Automatic annotation (TrEMBL):
Ranges of residues in domain FAD-binding: 6-172
Domain of life: Eukaryota
Similarity comment text for this entry: Belongs to the paxM FAD-dependent monooxygenase family.
Key words, A-Z: FAD, Flavoprotein, Membrane, Oxidoreductase, Transmembrane, Transmembrane helix
Keyword Nucleotide-binding part of the UniProt annotation: no
Organism: Diplogelasinospora grovesii
Matches recorded under InterPro entries: FAD-bd (IPR002938), FAD/NAD-bd_sf (IPR036188), FAD_mOase_fung (IPR050562)
Gene3D superfamilies in the record: FAD/NAD(P)-binding domain (3.50.50.60)
Transmembrane regions: 567-588, 608-626, 638-656, 677-698, 704-725, 732-750, 762-789
Alphabetized GO MF terms: FAD binding; monooxygenase activity
Keyword Cytoplasm assigned: no
Required cofactor names: FAD
Protein name per UniProt: FAD-binding domain-containing protein
Length: 818
């Protein structure tokens, strides 16, 4: 096939159209671009954000250096309330995005990006201006575009890249309506507008720091500013909720008078306490006002016609995703065209083959484009505090949200389209959150499916509760309390009824304390060995729970509340609550949460304090229960240990606020995402060694009878007396506690295996290693070692589909030289 045997007509010379033109030119595919305006890079007044997903494609096309020259990377991001006061600490969001993907997030004038794209096209004769589409005709062999100036252009494909009010889409609807009337009718209702937006460029503003981005939250209003690094200009936008939702055909257009009225209504919005939007307006050198349209269309193609960019997936401005989504769609279309022509080896494609590539194009982009639209619209409503949840989030959760928005943007970028036929830029393969076509928006693992898969863990919790609490054990404990003494064959001690001087609490804890007296006072020797080992092993569980609570991947989840789980476990038994915790953890921690190495990272300030806190709050009271020389005072230690979750959490807070441990999170997440790993290995390894030592000591003192120490022989409720009940209850409690933890580890190992991160270790080897460790070192040590092994995998290995320097050759891609 010669160069001119296949021709693509591109309608529209915006971001999507110019990107597609470059994609086709570099693939050697003939095209003509028709732009209705009189120039390819008009001044439209709007800014545009280029995220790593767009930057990677632009670098493949050779535009990246031009992009770097024009765009303004952000440094620090701030959130503000309606009075300009900060909401939470600032974030170095751009530094994190750069570390994750290899590209900084850059913002600049849309006109300058259009110029970069237009200048990148070598054969300018193929880009025609003043060519407004008037009509479209298609046959089984070709498609023809008739322009308003009387000219006509024929080709094999027509790609509409002409924006949200696409003339190409309108003509495609007219052609498709007889065959798909319901689909066309649905799409005509898809576009809506609930917000208007003002774009401005201000000069000479001194109150803002260069490179800073400020976001301002107000009920029904929103403002964002970005201060240029090189010329101190401020690019800003203001959004306002409209009185009603407008559909296609009724969306308003604004005049200069409308803009003045808008500023009178919204000039009071404070960017900072000493700076309002009105102040920026008085120094504005360029502005534009429009509506913020939203639209997800179902009909992207018909026959030889397809649409890309805003014409089929229109985002709002808040996420800054629209331009990048348009670049991706252009790349996806080019991929499918090039793939078809390569497969045909010079032959002319048939009408059916053309339709097939159109369908493949749509399918390759539909899920991601829809997800990006949804994320964009959700963020718009959050920024404007649209509903009750949005208001609640901004006021109570946003101050603690950290990189919530950055993570949302990261999910939008990671699964991005690339140009399959051009080499991958080296910088795109070196980030801590590699691009991965099987992850991100639209491809997230279903939480419902994970809950269904995890039902065995929930089932263990239900079985444990029903087996261990078939009868209320408290009456037996209270019967002993009534005697005033704890009596055994060789001695007795008075019962301590109060400790905290809080009536209901002392009454509850005194009753619970009775269940530990057979082991504490050694009138049940087997129970003493079992409980001593159990509480030592529990230290590993506590360490794991608290480390998981300060992990970045578990931010803003219930897993941040280990004290709550541990307190409930003190009431209902760890055997009931541990499987429940594991069930929830499995649902909330899919492997996709660890696509970025920094998501595995824990907060070093807290991580360094966890072991001292666990020693102070758990180990010392637990061993005091068994080893304190004054027998009567051992009950005081039981009172303390019963509330160990409170003491561990209190010690953790005091230690982290003492200044002993530095907060290095801002540096770690960008430059050292594995800095915590040696500390974790040392701390958890210490508790593992202690648990193994106690396990081996138990074997040494009980010989082959050790198994009788740990294996329950009957149901607690059928045993008479508190000694027999306690003996069986605590054995079952240990069985269900670690049974749930081991099932949980198997599920987590399954995630790693599915992701191809542990292909060198078979299931047989993992299970055999665990069984040997369980016999030789005990359940606590086995749990700790298994958890540490997974931690090392998360820190050092990547998903099988991640695009890294190590994987690209295996996956069949070439790498572009820097």
């Amino acid at each position: 096939m010669t160069k001119h045997d296949f021709r693509v007509i591109i309608s529209g010379g915006g971001v999507a159209g110019l990107t597609l033109a470059s994609c086709l030119e570099q693939a050697g595919v003939d095209y003509v671009l028709l732009e209705r305006r009189g120039e390819l890079a008009p001044q439209l007044g709007a800014s545009i954000v280029i995220f790593p997903n767009g930057a990677r494609i632009l670098e493949q096309l050779g535009c990246y250096q031009g992009l770097k020259d024009y765009a303004q990377p952000t440094k620090w991001s701030y959130n503000h309330d309606s009075k300009g006061r900060p909401i939470g600490p600032p974030t170095n969001a751009n530094a994190l995005a750069t570390a994750r993907f290899g590209y900084s997030v850059a913002c600049g004038e849309r006109q300058r990006l259009l110029k970069v794209l237009a200048d990148n096209i070598k054969d300018k004769s193929k880009c025609l201006v003043n060519k407004e589409v008037a009509a479209i005709e298609q046959t089984s062999d070709s498609v023809t575009v008739k322009c308003a100036d009387g000219s006509a252009y024929s080709g094999d494909l027509l790609i509409g890249a002409d924006g949200v009010f696409s003339r190409t889409r309108e003509q495609m609807w007219a052609l498709a309506e007889p065959e798909f009337p319901d689909l066309v009718a649905s799409d005509k209702r898809a576009l809506k507008a609930e917000y208007n937006v003002f774009y401005g460029i201000a000069d000479g503003v001194t109150q803002l720091v260069r490179g800073d981005m400020d976001t301002c939250f107000h009920p029904g209003r929103y403002a964002m500013t970005l201060t240029s690094i090189d010329d101190n200009r401020v690019y800003y936008c203001v959004e306002e909720r409209l009185p009603k939702s407008y559909g296609l055909g009724e969306i308003p257009r604004y005049s200069a008078e409308d803009t003045e009225a808008f500023m009178r209504r919204n000039g009071d919005i404070r960017v900072r306490p000493d700076l309002t939007i009105g102040d920026l307006w008085r120094k504005t050198i360029f502005s534009k006002m429009a509506v913020a349209e939203e639209g997800k269309f179902k009909l992207w193609t018909y026959g030889r016609i397809a649409c890309v960019g805003d014409s089929v997936h229109k985002t709002t401005l808040n996420l800054g995703a629209g331009g990048n989504a348009a670049i991706e769609s252009a790349a996806a279309m080019a991929n499918n065209i090039v793939h078809l022509l390569h497969m045909l080896h010079g032959k002319k494609p048939t009408a059916n083959q053309v339709r097939e590539i159109m369908v493949r194009y749509h399918e390759s982009r539909r899920v991601r484009a829809d997800a990006v639209c949804d994320s964009s619209w959700q963020l718009t409503r959050l920024n404007n505090m649209h509903g009750p949840f949005d208001k609640f989030f901004v006021r109570f959760l946003l101050p603690h949200a950290g990189e919530f928005i950055v993570d949302q943007v990261g999910d939008m970028m990671i699964g991005a389209t690339k140009l399959d036929y051009l080499p991958l830029p080296k910088r795109s393969l070196t980030g801590t959150k590699p691009f991965n076509p099987t992850q991100g928006d639209g491809q997230k693992e279903s939480k419902i499916m994970r809950a269904l898969w995890g039902l065995p863990m929930l089932g263990l919790a239900v079985v444990a509760f029903n087996l261990m609490f078939a009868e209320d054990p408290l009456p037996a404990a209270k019967a002993i309390l009534d005697t005033g003494k704890i009596v055994w064959a060789t001695g007795s001690v008075p019962i301590q009824y109060t400790f905290y001087r809080i009536g209901w609490l002392d009454e509850l804890l005194a009753a619970l304390n009775m269940f530990f007296t057979p082991s504490v006072y050694d009138y049940d020797a087997l129970s003493r060995s079992q409980v001593f080992s159990f509480l030592t092993d529990a230290g590993v569980v506590i360490m794991v729970w608290y480390l998981e609570s300060v992990r970045r991947a578990n931010h803003l989840t219930i897993l941040q509340l280990p004290m709550m789980f541990a307190l409930v476990a003190q009431l209902f038994g760890a055997g009931v609550i541990c499987p429940l915790y594991c069930f929830l953890h499995y649902i909330l921690s899919p492997i996709e949460n660890f696509s970025g190495t920094d998501n595995r990272l824990t907060k070093m300030k807290y991580t360094l304090a966890i072991l001292p806190a666990v020693i102070l709050g758990h180990y010392i009271p637990a061993y005091g229960m068994f080893l304190w020389p004054d027998l009567a005072d051992r009950q005081k230690w039981i009172f303390v240990w019963q509330l160990y979750p409170v003491y561990v959490s209190l010690a953790l807070q005091l230690l982290t606020r003492s200044g002993l441990f530095p907060d290095t999170m801002d540096e770690d997440k960008v430059h050292a995402p594995n800095r915590d790993l040696p500390v974790i290995r040392t701390y958890v390894g210490s508790t593992v060694a202690l648990s193994a030592a106690v396990w081996l000591y138990t074997w040494y003192t009980n010989g082959l009878g050790t198994w009788t120490v740990f294996i329950p022989t009957s149901i607690p409720s059928v045993i008479g007396g508190i000694t027999g009940f306690t003996s069986q209850f605590l054995r079952w409690d240990q069985v269900f506690t670690f049974g749930g933890q081991f099932v949980w580890l198997l599920y987590l190992f399954g995630d790693i295996k599915t992701a191809g991160m542990a292909d060198d270790v078979s299931w047989f080897k993992m299970v055999l290693s665990g069984a040997v460790s369980l016999v030789a070192l005990g359940p606590g040590a086995t749990l700790g070692l298994g958890w540490l092994w997974r931690e090392g995998i998360l820190a050092t290995r990547r998903h099988k589909d991640a695009l890294t320097l190590e994987s690209v050759k295996r996956l069949g891609f070439t790498v572009m030289d820097d």
